[in-house]
Amino acid sequence: MRQHLTISKKGQVTLPAELRKKMGLEAGGTVIAEEKNGELILRPAAVVEIDLYTDEQIDGWDEEDRLDAQTRDMILNKLSEKA
Q1: How many angstroms separate the Cα of 40 from the Cα of each of 33, 37, 54, 64, 73?
Q2: Which residues of 54-81 are buried (b: 16+ CB within 10 A; e: fewer)?
Q3: Bridge partners of 13?
Q4: What's the rounded Cα separation, in Å, for the pair 13 and 33?
């Protein structure tokens, strides 16, 4: 699909509704603009929600996941048998 877009004085372009719908773009959405071999490429950006954890939370998980000596030795023995 090729369309001609006009750039405003502020450097803005309006993407046609048909193209926005096809690409799943909504108001407030994010796109990535990059130049590649003299061409301007626009593509939808994947926005990933992240959680931030405190050092105390991470330390707690590490403690919960810590193996006792007997379990650790058993796992290491099984791994060495396969090598």
Answers
A1: 7, 9, 41, 50, 57
A2: eeeeeeeeeeeeeeeeeeeeeeeeeeee
A3: none
A4: 12
The answer to whether the CB of 29 falls within 8 A of the CB of 16 is: no
Tokens of 64: 């919960």
Residue 29 has which token pair? 């959405």
Given a cut of 80, whether residue 26 has pLDDT beyond it is yes
Give the mean pLDDT of 17-29.
92
Sign of CA dihedral 45, 4, 7, 40: positive
The whole-number pLDDT of residue 47 equals: 78
d(CA 7, CA 14): 8
